[in-house]
Amino acid sequence: MSEERILVTYLTQAKDLNKKAEAIAVGMTVGSWTDLPAAKQAELRPYLGEAIAVEVLEKLPDGQERGTITIGYPTGNFTPDIPSLLTGVFGKLSMDGKIKLLDITLPESFVRHFPGPRFGIGGLRQILGVHDRPLLMSIFKSCLGLPFDELQTQFRAQAEGGVDLVKDDEIFFADDKAPFLERIKAFRAIAAEVAEQTGKPVLYAANLTGPIHQLNERAKRAVEAGAQCLLFNVLAYGFDALHRLAADPDVRVPIMAHPALAGAFYPSPEYGIATPLLLGKLMRLAGADLVLFPSPYGSVALDKREALDVAANLTDAAQPVKPAFPVPSAGIHPGLVPQLYADFGHEQVVNAGGGIHGHPGGAAAGAHAFRAAIDAVVNGQPLEAAAEASEPLAAALAKWGGGK
Ligand code: 1AE
Question: Which member of 35, 85, 126, 294 has the lowest number of beta carbons within 10 Å of its beta carbon?
């Protein structure tokens, strides 16, 4: 077996953290150790986990130690997929008292089994022909129950406003009035018409839903119908569903990961899975080209350090898979663009639903306001100055203000 190890860091508490680390290293691998005869130990040693590091952060009033522990797991204990990885390092352990999975460091040989993003940041920029600014995406606001022609009008307005991508709402499943393949075809035609006027493409991310055993076939049919991007609620299905879509040679379009359900995993400081791993590292490994996560500013705000770490894990150049676009989302309006740019930089997608559709001049004006704000920050111009030349931006700043 390979000598390589997968390093896994947990935040936990126990009377003695060193003993807890030993118990995890053994309990999550060979089960028992010191009681085994020497011959059995020799046989099982290649599978045995190892306590690599223990850091006590504080002594709790009840005498327990709280801190981080890092366990090294032999790579050969796992098959190269995320279900095996997560079950092997946190399966039963996730139910064993106060313990949070903070990070997993994988050897390159293991990462190479994963597809990673097919397009990534570079591929998406190439498709869109946009290299000199953050991208802009708008979200359909309310899709459910709307007549098809209203959705087409909404799509046209967003596209004419100059967004780069338009995504479905993640809860758009009951689409009897605007069936999946029909709206892919219709929006593709509108995108082509708008591109004739504006000279710029716009990608529509259609919400891929349905039973898991039909997903790849459904995605393939979407691509045949002209889909140029797919939105996927990864956590409701599991990372392996994303992995299989990203690795499917017939699904040759960027995949956008929505964080729906993530709140069931990360918010507790004592339990669950940390966001930089959940929405950063694992999403990228499994093949998401763009990943939405809560911005630090909006209605479902994420701690700023964590949001920055999610973005860092999506873009970290040291990884052997392509970088994915960070999409800090929720509660974004044009006045936040300078803050977004300061925090997440050039390689991000500015994404808004209410901040585009809630513009006093409508969705096209909302998109114009964002484009003016993005151009301003890229050129180092204050928004107030840019608003003098952009009526939509002036109206947005009047409505939402110039910051958080
Ligand atoms: C973190 C997910 C954000 C999302 O899905 C969404 O719909 C945001 O909408 P707005 O921009 O807050 O209206």
Answer: 35
Confidence of residue 163 (pLDDT cuts 50, 70, 90): very high
Residues 364, 370, 373, 375: is their CA dihedral positive or negative?
A: negative
Q: What is the sign, positive or negative, of the torsion defined by CA atoms of 246, 327, 374, 333?
A: positive
With a pLDDT cut of 90, the percent of the chain lying above it is 93
For ligand 1, the distance from its centroid to the CA atom of residue 242, given in whole angstroms, is 21
Query: Sheet harboring 272-273: ordered strands across?
Result: 50-59, 65-74, 5-14, 99-105, 272-273
Tokens of 187: 């929006």
Q: For ligand 1, atom 6, which residue shows the shortest CA distance? A: 330
Active-site residue set: 92
- Start-end of CATH 3.30.70.150 domains in the chain: 5-111
Q: Shortest CA distance to 248 belongs to which of 226, 286, 220, 207? A: 220
pTM tops 0.90:
yes
Query: CA dist 32 to 5, 37, 95, 108, Å?
Result: 19, 11, 19, 29
DSSP reduced 3-state for 291: strand
pLDDT number for residue 301: 85
Q: Which CATH number fits domain 120-400: 3.10.50.40, 3.40.50.300, 3.20.20.110, 3.30.470.20?
A: 3.20.20.110
Tokens of 1: 């077996």
Query: CATH: 3.60.20.10, 3.90.650.10, 3.40.50.410, 3.30.70.150. Which one for 5-111?
Result: 3.30.70.150
CB within 6 Å of ligand 1 — which residues?
A: 139, 170, 259, 292, 294, 298, 300, 329-332, 352-355
CA distance 18 to 312: 30
Task: Give the pLDDT confidence of 31-66 residue by residue, as tens digits.
Answer: 988 888 899 899 999 999 999 999 999 999 999 999
Q: How far is CA 52 from CA 8, 23, 31, 100, 210, in A?
A: 9, 13, 18, 17, 42
